User: Fold this.
Amino acid sequence: MEGTVKSAGQSIATRRRFTRILSQIPLIYYVFVLVMFIIYLRTPTFFQGGPLVAFIRGAAPLIVVAVGQMFVLVSGELDLSVGSLITVCAAIASKVINNDPNRVGEAFLWVFGIAILVGLINGIMVTRFN
Assistant:
């Protein structure tokens, strides 16, 4: 009888510890796991090599932009120019490349220069004029 009471007490303590650990995990991680589970249910082959790599390659530019926006938001600011800047840079890169794969480096330099210029102007306006 004593062994069952002791194991029930340990079970409750373990359950409380587990619940406390789970409650410390941010909700976004649970949402992420749920989305991954739904994707798996709809397309079981998604997590195998090809489709997952293709998805990550397609999402990489958006991930880079999201990380940059995260730093802006964490600092307490809000930058609404990112979408417009991406559109302008994509249009300029398209014009510079003009179906010539040898001009990708030149397009990169143009896009990088324009992005730095716009970022510099935004930074000066925020620091000087609030």
Q: What stands out?
A: The helical segments are 2-23, 27-42, 49-74, 82-97, 104-129.
